[in-house]
Specification:
alpha+beta; seven-stranded mixed beta sheet
Length: 628
């Protein structure tokens, strides 16, 4: 059993971007056969299902593919989106849809190849031209964000499936619910809108796990509840937080057992022994060690595979490419749902015991973000919300009479790198051209648009992010010198990709980023003196890196990016969804980011996935035990 420090938990990565979202697809007539050459010159688009919907747009002259644009906005940021540039380059180099799969992104790769193949077939006049319209999110109504439950004619239902427990959404919370219900002996079906579940997040939190006990980590439950309440600005249900504290350790141990069955160790985050910060940190994290672990057929092992395989052994069934359209009720009780399959057919699911909705939040639904928390849309540069976070599960439950938090917020990380001329805001985030810049959360020197420091950089991500977005333009410049660039492959990567401004002197760098030269030079000289003196009279910083005195100098424009939304359905400690009068909606349970009551205005660090796992387990058990 091993442990690792908080800083070791940071992950590197650069998420590639996407263009506009897709709303509708229709087909037109075949293009005329090429008069000469291979193709009918023009631009063609096609859609295929990856983790989410992927759109490939290809431009042709008579004999060549001249341009490729990939819309992978609904793919996993660190996997499918990160593979976009390689896939585009491969298509251009091959001049064909038959390219190598990007390792670790096979689902996205295959979808891109499928859509590219359709573009090529259109350009050859072999199939009808596919018209892909660029517009709002596919799930957003043309009017208000909530809209109304759709009317589905009975004759449109092509099949009916009956189960004990239906779990809608097979990400972290959903998979923990499926496994729990299956362990209780219930017949379980899990459905997910994508071709595979969105997976189990990498690091899970908990209190009093066997891993923490082995390392002597002790966290007082009431200290933890108090800190969570402070972070949430009081907008939480302390009963839910106490349940999390009391049950999370056992859930972590359960997950550790499932991992051990596949030869994977679960390590405990011990916390840094010498953590120079003025903010309290709770060492609640646990991280699976996946390196080198594969399935029998050579695929990289992950939490999704581990739990899906485990649930299937217990008799659970998974229906992918199946999207819930609406919940169904009889005599006030939720009895199941109507869903749409990948081929556009409607099917009915009847749950004899209960329905667990675990479809995630609404980070990818800009209409909901604009309606419920517009202030955050103004300051972001990147949207790292998971592809399934479209708010459709929240809407379906609200149509069924559910209540929702009145306080909504977004988990923001100062880990977005903007290009020099990019402003903050939703339009920049939608374009997907900004980078995932995890170094943005490192305690390196930051200055604002006036060339001045504005905070003790050694703070929690929420404190630094809040100060950053309060600056002119809602961004800061992270400043490094050549010595730091030489030591960081991540910084070198951003220099090569054109995200950095450069100057041989402080004044030259100031000019490059548009700040007052004298002010910036003074800031830099003052910083170097702080490092030398190990004292910061301006902001009280207590730990210091190296001086920034090795030319040339670089600056990267940093702002906040969306991680996930906070604020959702109202549930009780048994994960039963409550109506607007505070009464239980019989047969309806919820877990994960779709629910509220735990994080409120802000999330305590390391706590993102913890409530998903705990309340996912509770929901699965409660739904399987439910008697109408």
């Amino acid at each position: 059993m091993s442990n690792l420090s908080r800083r070791s938990f940071l992950r590197t990565g650069l998420a590639g971007g996407a263009t506009l979202a897709v709303s509708t697809v229709s087909t037109a007539a075949l293009a005329a056969k090429p008069a000469k050459g291979l193709y009918i010159p023009g631009t063609y688009s096609a859609k295929a299902a990856g983790i989410g919907d992927i759109v490939v747009t290809m431009t042709f002259d008579e004999n060549r593919i001249t341009d490729v644009v990939l819309n992978v906005a609904h793919e996993t940021p660190s996997i499918g989106q990160a593979a976009a540039e390689r896939l585009k380059s491969s298509l251009m180099a091959a001049q064909s849809a038959q390219i190598d799969v990007v390792s670790g992104a096979s689902i996205t790769s295959n979808a891109v190849m499928k859509a590219a193949g359709k573009c090529i077939a259109q350009a050859k006049g072999e199939i009808p031209v596919e018209v892909v319209s660029n517009g709002a999110d596919a799930d957003a109504d043309s009017g208000d964000w909530l809209g109304k439950a759709p009317e589905i004619a009975e004759k449109s239902i092509t099949a009916t499936y009956t189960t004990d427990v239906l779990v809608v959404g097979c990400g972290t919370g959903g998979l923990f619910a499926v496994c729990a219900a299956a362990e209780e002996g219930a017949k379980v079906i899990g459905i997910d809108r994508f071709s595979t579940g969105t997976g189990v997040r990498g690091d899970v939190g908990g209190l009093d796990s066997r891993y923490q006990k082995a390392w002597g980590t002790k966290i007082d439950k009431f200290d933890f509840v108090t800190m969570m309440t402070q972070y949430a600005a009081g907008h939480i249900n302390q009963d839910l937080v106490k349940v999390f504290c009391e049950q999370s350790g056992a859930v972590v141990d359960w997950y550790g057992d499932r991992l051990a069955e596949r030869g994977v160790e679960l390590w405990h985050e011990s916390g840094d022994k010498d953590d120079h910060t003025r903010y309290e940190h709770f060492a609640i994290g646990h991280s699976p060690r996946w390196a080198g672990k594969t399935t029998e057929d050579g695929k990289k092992l992950n939490g999704n595979i581990v739990l899906v395989d485990y649930a299937k052994k217990l008799g659970a069934r998974f229906d992918y490419n199946t999207r819930m359209v609406k919940l169904e009720k009889q005599a006030g009780r939720v009895t199941g749902c109507i869903a749409e399959t990948g081929d556009g057919k409607f099917v009915r699911y009847i749950a004899k015991k209960g329905v667990v909705v675990a479809t995630g939040g609404y980070a990818q639904n800009y209409q909901m973000l604009e309606a419920l928390q517009p202030w955050n849309l103004r300051v972001i540069g990147r949207n790292g919300g998971l592809p399934g976070a479209r708010g459709d599960g929240i809407r379906a439950c609200l149509w069924a009479g559910a209540a929702m938090d009145e306080t909504h917020s977004t988990m923001l990380f100062d880990r977005c790198a903007l290009r020099i001329d990019q402003p903050t805001g939703a339009e920049t985030a939608k374009k997907g051209d900004s980078g995932f810049f995890w170094i943005g959360s490192q305690p390196w020197l930051k200055v604002n648009a006036d060339g001045k420091r504005f905070i003790d950089e050694v703070g929690t991500r929420d404190v630094v992010s809040a100060a950053e977005i309060a600056q002119p333009g809602s961004y800061s410049w992270l400043v490094v010198d050549q010595a730091m660039a030489d030591a960081s492959s991540v910084i070198q990567g951003y220099i090569k990709k054109g995200y950095t401004a450069e100057g041989a002197t402080y004044e030259e760098l100031a000019k490059a980023i548009g700040v007052d030269e004298a002010t910036f030079a003074e800031t830099m000289n003052n910083w170097n003196q702080c490092v030398a003196d190990k004292a910061d009279a301006e902001f009280g910083r207590t730990s210091f890196a190296n001086p920034l005195d090795t030319a040339p100098y670089y600056a990267i424009k940093v702002t906040a990016g969306v991680h996930h939304t906070m604020g959702g359905l109202t549930i009780n400690t048994n994960t039963e969804v409550l109506d607007t009068n505070g009464n239980v909606i019989p047969g309806l349970f919820a877990a994960g980011e779709i629910t509220g009551g735990v994080h409120g205005a802000n999330r305590l660090g390391g706590n993102a996935v913890a409530d998903f796992t705990v309340f996912g387990r509770i929901a699965g058990q409660a739904a399987s035990d439910y008697a109408a």
